[in-house]
Amino acid sequence: MSREATTINTWSIALVRALDAAGHDGHALLAQAGIDRQALQDPNGRTPVKSMARLWRLAVDATGDPCFGLKVSAFIQPATFHSLGLALLTSQNLEDALLRSARFSRIVSNAADVSIEPTANGIKQVVRWRADIPVVDEGIDLLMASTLKIGVLLLALDANTPRPLELHLQRAATPAMRAEFERHFACPIHFEASENALLIPAEWARRPLPMANAQLARRNDIVVMEYLARFDTDAMAERVRAELISRLVSGEPTRADIATALCLSEKTLQRRLQAEQTTFQQLLDEVRRELALSYLRERHATVCDVTFRLGFSDQSSFTRAFRRWTGLTPGQFRVGPATT
């Protein structure tokens, strides 16, 4: 992967605030790490991961705390994640929020790939660091701790709610570190594991969120995709997704329509998508499926409404596509529990 790995500035700002709170000069450590304090004032800006790795090393050395990533999570809030934070708040359930977070994880950093995978009892968030970048264990600690913090916020849980979670970390830990991680996460933790994963039970994953608003979530998705398209020129798929979402209500857009909107030839668009291991038709199908599930959870929207919002010419075409995606008709999906 040729593009430089970067982290959103708000992630760096949280680290500096944690250093200041611990009695250290965060801005002095910024300078030592080679990070421009003025540039960091742009909340939309990006910091090279190699510079962030130096800042983490300096922070751990200054504090003498190998668990410092857990301390930084105290300064993480939804706004830290740009417009993705607003999309998370308005997701349908925790699984929906985590899927959205994984899909747009590059907004925080493109140094790691985040995925949401099924387990026997629910789902798990898996973090895989890019092979061409030295692993920053504290960054992974912070990501897992942030997932916990945001998840508790989304579910409106209090501090005493039992946490039926399980955390796996590839990093090693001393007994003192193990004790601190267990206090912070209040769940079983496995160090020197085969993967970095946070296991979440179905009970939490599928619980409806109190602030769910599918329309607001979709609008913020578009803002996220526009932001990603600005800093990540390789993410042609995200630019196509954004165009599809904005155009479907007017009918099914063609590949030529999207290519024109992106100031590309059809052949160039096709080649760029192939390089990202996808196609225009796959993206159209994925966007329609995601939107269909979201729209059908809005009880006031009729199946006919959803049909035309997704650019289908008739309801039977939509029903066939939905059955292909889920094994259910739209009506069956609404009657029964959402298992997709």
What does this structure look like?
The chain is α+β, with helices and mostly antiparallel strands. It has two domains: 6-205, H-NOX domain (Alpha-Beta Complex); 235-335, Homeodomain-like (Arc Repressor Mutant, subunit A, Orthogonal Bundle), CATH 1.10.10. It is built from 17 helices and seven strands. The strands form two sheets. Strands 3-4-7-5-6 form a five-stranded mixed beta sheet. Strands 1-2 form a two-stranded antiparallel sheet. A hairpin with a 3-residue loop joins strand 3 and strand 4. It is globular and about 65 Å long.
Question: What tags apply to this protein structure?
Answer:
two-stranded antiparallel sheet, Arc Repressor Mutant, subunit A, 2 domains, five-stranded mixed β-sheet, 7 strands, globular, H-NOX domain, alpha+beta
How far apart are the first and last residues' alpha carbons, in Å? 32 Å
* Count of individual beta strands: 7
Which range does the strand content fall in? 5-15%
Sequence of secondary-structure elements:
EHHEHHHHEEHEHEEHHHHHHHHH
Mean pLDDT: 89
Concise synopsis of the structure shown:
The protein has helices at 9-21, 26-33, 49-63, 68-72, 83-89, 94-103, 137-154, 175-185, 202-205, 214-231, 236-247, 255-261, 266-275, 280-296, 303-309, 315-326, 330-335, and strands at residues 6-8, 46-48, 112-118, 122-129, 166-168, 189-190, 196-201. The protein is an alpha+beta fold and 340 residues long.
